Amino acid sequence: MATTKLPPDGLDLLTPDVTTDAEIEQFRAFYSYAKKAQNKSYEFWLEFRPDVLKRHKARTATYYVGPPAPCGALAALHQYIITAFDDGIGYEFQLAQTMGASRSDIIDTISVAFIHSGHPGMYLVSRHTDWLRDFEEMTPSGAFPDNWGFDPHAFDSGMDWTEMHCSEEDIARLLGWYEQTIGEVPRYVAWLAENRPDLLKAYRNRYEHAIRDSLPAQMMPYLNLHYNVFRGFEEGIRENVLLGRALGMTRQQILNAICSAVLHTGTEGFGIVERCTEGLLETFPDVD
């Protein structure tokens, strides 16, 4: 089994206007190890404007707080599957593995992504099946935060999965799950319950059973929070902040999921976060 210890990337972020050959050599060595390939966008900036790359990497160094974990790589993989970014899927597979994600962690993440990706993302995932078949588990595997854990029943609503029809009892159980777990019922849930209850049940069936083998339950709100910040969906942001709180995530862990989306939203996206989570972050266990 391979080790998960990452080498330094070699860039001196305090000297953006000076980049040495030694820095470039170490930076490429880092990507050869972490993602088994060079990042094409970074290669462009190394050739034409290394200062742009260094200032970008300074951003990367600030959005995540805490011990290294595969959460960010899996969140990026989740987003890249949904947006059908083939190169991104390939290198986030590699990075997640390097960071300690197991094969089943990655497959559980793909399962969650399929809820939003439809077929375009899955067609691209299918190009990487040989890599999944030959997957080499890292040591240690599953290097997630200590307060996280796998729980295949974390999202059980009590709906009856032995039939496709959504009964009034199914709706009552689902609404009760939301009220008990996050303290409110999202508007889309109430709307579907009234207008297309069978569709609501079908999607809830996918959601409750997407994580089956090893992925910590906390990755469900982490993945969906990152994605909903990326696309600017207020209801999805609020629901997953509340769900993260219910699952014992800390304030910094929630902020990591939110801030990881800055790569594609820009800082302007956080205005949406502020509007739909006003006062919520102060209710989490850590405020440092």
How much helical structure, as a percent, in the residues? 55-70%
Number of helices: 15
What would the principal axes of the Cα set say about the shape? globular
Percent strand: under 5%
- Give the low-pLDDT segments: none
Q: What is the terminal separation in angstroms? A: 36 Å
Describe the fold and architecture.
The protein has 288 residues and is mostly helical. It has three domains: 62 residues, no CATH class; 151 residues, no CATH class; 42 residues, no CATH class. Helix content is 60%, strand content 1%. It has a two-stranded parallel sheet with strand order 1-2. Helix 2 packs across helix 3, helix 4 runs antiparallel to helix 5 and helix 11 runs antiparallel to helix 12. The longest helix is centred in the middle third of the chain and has 23 residues. The mean pLDDT is 93.
Secondary structure elements and their pairing?
Layout: E1 2-3, H1 21-34, H2 40-48, H3 50-63, H4 71-82, H5 86-98, H6 103-125, H7 129-133, E2 138-139, H8 168-181, H9 187-195, H10 197-209, H11 219-231, H12 234-246, H13 251-259, H14 262-265, H15 270-276
Parallel strand pairs: 1-2
Characteristic key phrases:
3 domains; 288 residues; single chain; mainly alpha; two-stranded parallel ribbon
Write a brief structural summary.
The protein has helices at 21-34, 40-48, 50-63, 71-82, 86-98, 103-125, 129-133, 168-181, 187-195, 197-209, 219-231, 234-246, 251-259, 262-265, 270-276, and strands at residues 2-3, 138-139. It has 288 residues and is mainly α. It folds into three domains: 2-63, no CATH class; 71-150 and 213-283, no CATH class; 168-209, no CATH class.
